[in-house]
Amino acid sequence: MVQAKPKLKTFDDYLAHCKDTEARYELTNGELIEIPHGSDENVIIARAMDLALSDLVGFRRVRSHQLAIEMPGQPKNRFPDITVLLPEHLEQLKTSGQSAIRLDMHPPMLVVEVVSPGPENHRRDYIEKRNQYEWRGIPEYWIVDPENQRVTVLFLTADGYEASVFMDNTVVVSKTFPDWTLTAADMLST
């Protein structure tokens, strides 16, 4: 017997439904869309980013692959590969008991996506997520692209995201993390 997926009306319905599952889903037009697991290369790159960012802000403020960010529009949430939280988020997450940044909370200070191979993933990370992260007011968004061997840093301005692209042995410049010392090649090595 095939069990129908539930139709969810709100982000609260989504959180209640997903709290006891290991799978990660995005809520799109009331439907649960399972997020596929990344390649081994992408997981290793994300883990390296997690460690490097944890050295800068502390491990409690860095989340990898497990924190939902509520979004305006559709899909209603995203699961960035890496999310760097503001200090205030720690208490808010503890109080709420949810692993989610809600619309009524300040946006995280940084999200990082490691692009999986394929045109659909490229479009999602470079266009769809870029638009949603910009609309959500996330100050900085990094796109780490192993296939094209580049790191794109998007910094939020009054006019939207401003992009800088880094390749090879060029140190990646971040306004949020001025002490960042890794090059694009460092960030892309596995």
Automatic annotation (TrEMBL):
Listed GO MF terms: endonuclease activity
Keyword Magnesium attached: no
Putative restriction endonuclease domain span: 11-184
A Pfam family reported for this protein in Swiss-Prot or TrEMBL: Uma2
Keyword Membrane part of the UniProt annotation: no
Keyword terms: Endonuclease, Hydrolase, Nuclease
SUPFAM superfamilies for this protein: Restriction endonuclease-like (SSF52980)
Protein name stated in the entry: Uma2 family endonuclease
